[in-house]
Specification:
about 140 residues, 8-stranded antiparallel barrel, 8 strands, about 5% helix
Length: about 140
């Protein structure tokens, strides 16, 4: 008697976006300089002025704009334990990202300009390792 092996679970719909987010990113435009590191569904966001946020996130790429919920596990005490409801998009090899205020119950429905002082609208470019290894 043979036993059927269980079917592989279907790939999550969000997998292509999750794969595209992996790695290190640095700001190319926006009101604050920052680095974003993504590993799996964990993130670390470090601002040049010293604030660091660490936590987990989920993505929903089927909406327009795409949605990202970032749960802040570590960071400034005023934001720890809160969720930031963000929007994001990939465009021409860059990541456009704009969070809502941590703890706010609403999410933006369109991207503000990167020069709009009311929002933290950032454009990230991927950090590429140097070619040929060390010394080049």
């Amino acid at each position: 008697m043979s036993v059927a092996s269980p079917a592989a679970p279907p790939a999550p719909r969000h997998r292509p976006d999750l794969d595209a987010l992996q790695g290190a990113w640095t700001t190319a435009a926006g009101p604050r300089e920052a680095r974003l590191l993504v590993a799996g569904t964990r993130f670390a966001l470090e601002f040049r002025d010293g604030d660091i946020y660490i936590g987990t996130f989920t993505v929903e790429p089927d909406d327009d704009p795409r949605r990202m919920d970032m749960r802040i596990e570590e960071g400034p005490a005023r934001h720890r334990g809160m969720t930031a409801y963000c929007i994001y998009q990939f465009e021409g090899g860059v990541l456009r990202w704009c969070p809502g205020r941590p703890g706010a119950a609403t999410r933006l429905v369109r991207f503000p300009g990167v020069d709009d002082p009311r929002y933290l609208s950032l454009v990230f470019r991927p950090v590429r390792p140097p070619r040929g290894g060390l010394g080049e």
